[in-house]
Amino acid sequence: MILEVRDLSVRLGGSHILQGVSFDVPPTGVTALLGRNGVGKTTTLRAILGEVPAGGSVAFDGAQILGRPTYRLVRSGLGYVPEDRGVFGGLTVAENLRLAERGPNPDYETVHALFPELRQRAAQRAGTLSGGQQQMVALARVLLNPNRLLLVDEPTKGLAPAVVSAVTAALARVAQRVPILLVEQNLAVVRRLAGAAVVLSAGRVAWSGPAADLLGSADQTRSLLGVGTMGSGTTGSPTTRST
Amino acid sequence: MATVVLLTATGLGLAALYFLIAAGLSLVFGLAGVLNFAHGLFLSVGAYATWWAAQRWGFAAAVVFGVACAAAVGALVELAMIRPLYKRPTEQVLVTVGLSLAGVALLEAVWGADSRPFPRPQWTRQVVTVLGARVPADRLLLFGAAVVVLAGLTAFLRFTRHGLVIRAGVEDRAMVSALGIDVRRSFTLVFAIGGGLAGLAGALGGVYFGSVSPEQGASLLIFAFIVVVIGGMGSVAGTALAAVAVGLVQQFVNYYGTGGAGDVCVVALLAIVLLARPHGISGRVAA
């Protein structure tokens, strides 16, 4: 396993958000982290990355990483694309990418092959880009560097259907090279990308297994994710803030 | 006309001092989120180090020494006292307030509470005729230094990787860390830069006021804070504009109105800007 999460626990502002979350991420493909709004999906990613104080243990490629500074984890090959994209609006596209370079040979070839539009918009301020273009910048930043695992948080949130397709296709290509732990509300995207799924409920793991098994059962998707249809629904309300 | 030119030159000289202090203060707050009340101490260190060195070496070498001392103190304060408290902002503010008070007390203990005459170079005592007005050369020195610093700081933020990290960190320092960058190194750097600039303000303030005193840093710091708020946290260009506005308003109102009215007008200007633009002239954008 590339990532082994055991008994992960997070308290924030008096709330016990994660109450002993345990799951594994295999070294290939996409693992979807699912659940209704507020169950702790984003907090799980942030805890793994060291952005919030957490208890339990997290092993990344065999090494215990909980408590290590975020920048060191990222340098060790843990790429992160946050929910709000984390694009620096006052910097240009080129500056956003240059900032993310970690080594002497950033992989602009892959980035420009996946997102040719970014080359044309290099001098444009990232704050003036559309949501889809900002998502391209956010993904491009992690693709510039060699990573052993990507944590990707709701990459299609708020995007137009055509852009969702483009981002999904890009993630599918990326997943051929590097494993991804994906938080995603759009079940059509999960169906397309994910081989495994972990479902959180009330700060705990409520279900884990092959994504096809979960999405193939209307009863399970209804009871675990709160959606009645299989495949194209979204879990919970997209306007609710994730935790 | 000559009076207006002289007031403008004096106001711009004062603005230059405010800018040199406020630029570092603004970057420190914008990037590290530290409300640094010890910034006045950096100015005093620069002023006294320059004053001490100017009696032994030439003026230029003394200024370099003063700036280096203040930058070193800035970096040391960040490393030793601010860094352990980044997750405790209240304690952080208390530490900077304590440092400021202790610094003044230390300077008073070593060199006394009275002002010390600053050994100004002869050429700064001369006057230059500008549009019919006889303008003291030290005003031009201050203004020229501030323009050079503004240009240098802007180029640093725009064209270097450290500058890029600082500009990004002013927007979202957590995301900078999430890109694999140790943003704490940039915190130390901005403290050193801010300390150095405050030290330069201290050295040039000695020329402008003709003396150095332990309280000088604290009194100038109040107006520097106002400049930072008006200019926008983390914005160097906004800080420069705000410094010019504050310096000119103070000079003109104090001359044409009653003494001290300029300070009241500066506070009124602060209130107006905060009501119209709560994030200041430029908002939280460096450069």
What does this protein look like?
The complex is a heterodimer of chains A (243) and B (287). Chain A has 10 helices and 10 strands. Chain A is of the alpha/beta class. Chain A has a domain of 163 residues: Rossmann fold. Chain A has a 6-stranded mixed sheet, with helices on both faces. A 4-stranded antiparallel sheet of chain A has the order 2-1-4-5, covered by helices on one side. In chain A, a hairpin with a 2-residue loop joins β9 and β10. In chain A, α3 packs parallel to α6 and α6 packs parallel to α7. Chain A is globular and about 45 Å long. The C terminus of chain A is likely disordered. By secondary structure, chain B is mostly helical. Chain B has one domain: ABC transporter involved in vitamin B12 uptake, BtuC (Orthogonal Bundle). Chain B has 10 helices and 4 strands, in the order ααααβββαααβααα. In chain B, α2 packs parallel to α4, α8 runs parallel beside α10 and α9 runs antiparallel to α10. The longest helix of chain B is centred in the first third of the chain and has 31 residues. The model of chain B has no long low-confidence stretch (mean pLDDT 89). Chains A and B meet through α2 and α3 of A and α6 of B.
Query: How would a textbook summarize the main sheet of chain B?
Result: 2 strands, antiparallel
Query: CATH topology of chain B, what is it called?
Result: ABC transporter involved in vitamin B12 uptake, BtuC
Q: Identify the quaternary structure here.
A: heterodimer
The span between the termini of chain B is 34 Å
Instruction: Kindly provide the name of the CATH class of the domain at 3-86 and 147-225 in chain A.
Output: Alpha Beta
Order of adjacent strands in the largest pleated sheet of chain A: 6-7-8-3-9-10
Euclidean distance between termini CA atoms of chain A? 26 Å
